Amino acid sequence: DTGVSQDPRHKITKRGQNVTFRCDPISEHNRLYWYRQTLGQGPEFLTYFQNEAQLEKSRLLSDRFSAERPKGSFSTLEIQRTEQGDSAMYLCASSLARVTNTEAFFGQGTRLTVV
Amino acid sequence: SQELEQSPQSLIVQEGKNLTINCTSSKTLYGLYWYKQKYGEGLIFLMMLQKGGEEKSHEKITAKLDEKKQQSSLHITASQPSHAGIYLCGAAPGTASKLTFGTGTRLQVTL
């Protein structure tokens, strides 16, 4: 396994269009996270899954955003009716849930530009 | 909510020099993560610290978590151009490992 994989790496879309990103976590990891990062800032938490259950969503995740992890493996993040403010790097991370904290590994990210 | 402050915000050092980056939390840290990020790329995991007083090293990078678990430092010895990038500290509020990040420290290493 080569780590967390995200697709596409870059996406340019027109305002108002829908976009979907995919994340493939490390195979044995049962937790999957989505973060958003804007220029000059650290990543901000959006949502996370344990297996196929979405356990937490940030207030940053507006109604236009939806995430799924249908079989507890890969996940998709969809943004509907994109706005220029959605332009950012979208990062996916995965980890193995244990009693104590475990390492979280990130993918290379999907950079979204809304024009 | 937990807030993390990193200092300095940016740093330029000459190759071969040592440097330290600090991360201070507004609350007790249950898990403190250090990552490195190259511009436009994802985060590379460096180290995770959980216990007060814990210290870990990897190659020329050493990270420490203070006894009170509210501050961490990242020390690079004999810096190299390959160390250049943005260093981010992330904190876990508990065992969920959802992370809150600082704004990062941008490191440049000059020849």
Q: Can you count the beta strands of chain A? A: 11
Query: What is the terminal separation of chain B in angstroms?
Result: 41 Å
- Characterize the biggest β-sheet of chain B: 6 strands, mixed
| Topology of chain A as a string of helices (H) and strands (E) | EEEEEEEEEEE
Q: Which structural class do the helices and strands of chain A define?
A: mainly beta
Average pLDDT taken over every residue of chain B: 92
Radius of gyration of chain A: 14 Å
- Strand pairing plus helix content of chain B: what structural class? mainly beta
Distance between the termini of chain A: 35 Å
Task: Tally the beta strands of chain B.
Answer: 11
Low-confidence stretches of chain B: none
**Major β-sheet profile of chain A:** 7 strands, mixed
The fraction of residues assigned to DSSP E strands of chain A is over 45%
Strand content bin of chain B:
over 45%
**Gross geometry of chain A:** globular
Count of alpha and pi helical runs of chain A: 0
Low-confidence stretches of chain A: none
Briefly characterize the structure.
With 115 residues, chain A is mainly beta. Chain A has strands at residues 5-7, 10-13, 19-24, 31-37, 44-50, 53-57, 65-68, 75-79, 88-95, 105-106, 110-114. In chain A, strands 2, 4, 5, 6, 9, 10 and 11 form a seven-stranded mixed β-sheet that branches. A four-stranded antiparallel β-sheet of chain A has the order 1-3-8-7, with no helix packed on it.
